[in-house]
From TrEMBL:
<keyword id="KW-0375">Hydrogen ion transport</keyword>
<keyword id="KW-0138">CF(0)</keyword>
<dbReference type="InterPro" id="IPR000568">
    <property type="entry name" value="ATP_synth_F0_asu"/>
</dbReference>
<feature type="transmembrane region" description="Helical">
    <location>
        <begin position="35"/>
        <end position="57"/>
    </location>
</feature>
<keyword id="KW-1133">Transmembrane helix</keyword>
<dbReference type="GO" id="GO:0046933">
    <property type="term" value="F:proton-transporting ATP synthase activity, rotational mechanism"/>
</dbReference>
<comment type="similarity">
    <text>Belongs to the ATPase A chain family.</text>
</comment>
<feature type="transmembrane region" description="Helical">
    <location>
        <begin position="219"/>
        <end position="239"/>
    </location>
</feature>
<keyword id="KW-0812">Transmembrane</keyword>
<keyword id="KW-0813">Transport</keyword>
<dbReference type="InterPro" id="IPR045082">
    <property type="entry name" value="ATP_syn_F0_a_bact/chloroplast"/>
</dbReference>
<keyword id="KW-0150">Chloroplast</keyword>
<keyword id="KW-0066">ATP synthesis</keyword>
<protein>
    <recommendedName>
        <fullName>ATP synthase subunit a, chloroplastic</fullName>
    </recommendedName>
</protein>
<keyword id="KW-0793">Thylakoid</keyword>
<keyword id="KW-0934">Plastid</keyword>
<feature type="transmembrane region" description="Helical">
    <location>
        <begin position="95"/>
        <end position="115"/>
    </location>
</feature>
Length: 248
């Protein structure tokens, strides 16, 4: 199947940004639907890891924690403390699962991209890459954050929450709604850009020099990938916490 790739200079519609590609990619054709197989397969791997890790680590809980149990408890406590810092003592508890899932899914997705460019798994076209190096994935994460933002505010303050959109004057209603709706979108573009750039930086030396040479770059990629996941989850918690506060 031949796939036409869209170049930046051919974009005349904002919706075409989602079709911009770098390199070759594997697609599945399911009826009239074209599926980005690389993202889908790696996403399944990420989901499997996220499901298997806590099951394996906590299947034999001890009063005196083992190494794996210590690790899981440390991760959960870090997520809880970060969420509490951003949202406050009164509001954070119901949102720990959401923020934690957001952080862990982005973290594991980013790391999969830092490791898979070593061509562990060969595909007919291209190679497995992080789901977060696809703009559609990161925008979906941003939309989830937007939904959480509006839900948290309306759940906490009821219909009075929407009163802030006509302050200081009803004329600003469209602008205020647009501002809140698009607030998480810069997160998606930053995450997408950083992960894509990281994979390209790592992939070039891996394909042209002996395997041991790119290791420092891969380690740097793992570090920056972790920072990007932490940044996204922290700001998602901050935005959600902001919506529960009174309007000033």
């Amino acid at each position: 199947m031949h796939i036409e790739q869209l170049r930046i200079d051919e974009i005349d519609d904002p919706y075409q940004v989602s079709s911009v590609e770098v390199g070759q990619h594997l697609y599945w054709q399911i009826g009239d639907l074209q599926v980005h197989a690389q993202v889908l397969v790696t996403s399944w791997v990420v989901i499997a890891i996220l499901l298997a890790l806590p099951i394996v680590a906590t299947r034999n809980l001890q009063t005196i924690p083992t190494t794996s149990q210590n690790f899981i408890e440390y991760v959960l406590e870090s997520i809880r403390d970060s969420t509490r810092t951003q949202m406050g003592e009164e509001e954070y508890r119901p949102w720990v699962p959401f923020i934690g899932t957001m952080f862990l899914s982005i973290f594991v997705s980013n790391w999969s991209g830092a490791l898979f460019p070593r061509r562990i798994i060969q595909l007919p076209h291209g190679e497995l890459a992080a789901p977060t190096n696809d703009i559609n994935t990161t925008v979906a994460l941003a939309l989830l954050t937007s939904v959480a933002y509006f839900y948290a505010g309306s759940h906490k303050r009821g219909l009075s929450y929407f009163g802030k959109y006509i302050q200081p004057t009803p004329v600003l209603l469209p602008i205020n709604i647009l501002e809140d709706s698009t607030k998480p979108l810069p997160l998606s573009f930053r995450l997408f850009g950083n992960i894509l750039a990281d994979e390209l930086v790592v992939a070039v030396p891996v394909s042209s020099v002996p395997s041991i040479v790119p290791v420092p770059m891969m380690l740097l990629g793992l570090f920056t990938s972790a920072i990007q996941a932490l940044t996204f989850a922290t700001l998602a918690a901050a935005y959600t916490g902001e919506s529960t506060e009174g309007h000033h």
